[in-house]
């Protein structure tokens, strides 16, 4: 059984230590200081072929201190958030700051922007789970999948459950803290026929363990996904429509957000530099974030600068309406922070939604992509090339599985070529999206 985790006590302790680090930095000569501290505890089990492979009980903590001496910045961190390490971390941060060059963009976010509305966003749901119970759930998940006719073996099932506390404080007097939890259960299976072996997986993930799918449902879904890949062939080569499965469509949103992130913009390493207001998507498509959404996977009332988070619209009726900026990147660009230090939180799409069948019918002939491999995305040019697997579509109907091919294009052309979004929205992560149908990409197969 895991050691009891008293989240309230840990939260109070981290807040006290963060305030102690701020006070020490002031005494030692820092003009400004910010502190981040966290502690996490969890259990993870993996089973394979009905046997326990690994059991991991984890407890991690850490503290990071950033100090400013004039416009010079120094940062140091430690995996020990105890009192004894605070002085060492603060002294190291100050030593670094005194030897670094001046940076006019360095410094805390403006005091007037500090979060004042700090509601409970219902993101902390501990799971009083013993190690034995975790093993039983993983075994039930794998067993349900292995019992499906046609499944040859298993690549394992795993359960992960964790909770933690994070604290951020700075010398403006801001102190914010949040408790959170995350739980997941997954299964990967193997099937075989005369054409060879195939594998696939499925999973469930949530803040609240009561909303996880039943283990048997996850295992059976993993089995169905695996079996449907048997008999895969290489598709024809050509310029074809491509339908991205929801999890992969969320990845396309991720590439967009990387391209409009302040760090990429001020380094001139994005294909969307100086493109505010540009038409990137069809006018029926909008993309926004909801950081204060109750119970969501990435909800937080303050960002990593302590700035109050807010609803942001990044794509409005097809046009790039906003970049994603922290206080530092905003200063480098001569703009204002969007409350996105640490990234976007709870991205949502506003678009007309169509059924999977309707998207396939509109596609006619092309490929449905359910798996991507490799990292062939160039953020500077937007060029996109990935290994893929999925299904061949003819006359609007799935015909057979396909593998060992690549899809290639350019992200900007892909965004403009978006012709439909599916109603099959995947809500397991922080980006909620259905399938995306892109009008044309290069498919390199047989």
TrEMBL record:
Protein source organism: Halomonas nitroreducens
One annotated GO molecular function: metallopeptidase activity
Pfam families, A to Z: PmbA_TldD_1st, PmbA_TldD_2nd, PmbA_TldD_3rd
Domain Metalloprotease TldD/E N-terminal: residue ranges: 33-97
Presence of the UniProt keyword Hydrolase in the record: yes
Protein name: Metalloprotease PmbA
Domain Metalloprotease TldD/E central span(s) in chain numbering: 125-230
Similarity section: Belongs to the peptidase U62 family.
Transmembrane spans: none
Domain Metalloprotease TldD/E C-terminal: 237-445
GO cellular component, one term: cytosol
GO biological process, one term: proteolysis
SUPFAM superfamilies reported in the protein's UniProt record: Putative modulator of DNA gyrase, PmbA/TldD
Keywords tagged on the record: Hydrolase, Metalloprotease, Protease
